[in-house]
């Protein structure tokens, strides 16, 4: 399985914004599932946002709904996570996943993904 590298993390003050990117050049984005996940220190990996490009319905975990937006640029074969009004509790390593032909009817869960598929994440640190 392809391990994808998320990028765009950094240090930001509470209330600030960041945009994460996930280049998935092997995939045609016409019919893929895209997921963003995060893992805070000492905590389990959790879902953040998911989108099936064929279905077009995004899913967000409650804590980020209204602040984060998942999107894709099919031409650039890149997925994005726009994060606004960041809070210290958003501090985590963020990961992305892309799969061909997966059409999600709910948010994509970390347990849906094999352990070997996780690439390097990008660290987001939100200072108070």
The low-confidence runs, each spanning 5 or more residues with pLDDT under 50, are none
Sheet with most strands: 6 strands, mixed
- Structural class comes to mainly beta
Q: Give the helix level as a range of percent.
A: under 10%
- Average predicted confidence as pLDDT: 95
Number of helical runs? Answer: 0
**Spatial order of the strands forming the largest sheet:** 2-10-9-4-5-6
Could you give the order of the helices and strands?
Answer: EEEEEEEEEE
Count the beta strands.
10
Distance between the termini: 38 Å
- As an assembly, this protein is single chain
Q: What is the 3D form?
A: globular
What is the percentage of strand-forming residues?
Answer: 35-45%
Computed CA radius of gyration, to the nearest angstrom = 13 Å
Mind explaining what this structure looks like?
The chain has a six-stranded mixed beta sheet, with no helix packed on it. It has a four-stranded antiparallel beta sheet with strand order 1-3-8-7, with no helix packed on it. The protein is 0% helix and 45% strand. It has no helices and ten strands. The protein has 128 residues and is an all-beta fold. The chain starts with 5 loop residues before the first strand and ends with a strand. The model has no long low-confidence stretch (mean pLDDT 95).
């Amino acid at each position: 399985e392809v391990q994808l590298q998320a990028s765009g993390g950094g240090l930001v003050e509470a209330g600030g914004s960041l945009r994460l990117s996930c280049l998935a050049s092997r995939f045609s984005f016409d019919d893929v599932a895209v997921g963003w996940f995060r893992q805070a220190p000492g905590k389990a990996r959790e879902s953040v946002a998911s989108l099936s490009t064929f279905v077009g319905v995004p899913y967000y975990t409650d804590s980020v709904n209204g602040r984060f937006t998942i999107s894709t640029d099919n031409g650039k074969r890149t997925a994005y996570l726009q994060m606004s009004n960041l809070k210290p509790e958003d501090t985590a390593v963020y990961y992305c996943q892309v799969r061909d032909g997966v059409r999600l009817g709910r948010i994509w869960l970390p347990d849906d993904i094999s352990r070997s598929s996780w690439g390097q994440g990008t660290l987001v640190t939100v200072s108070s």
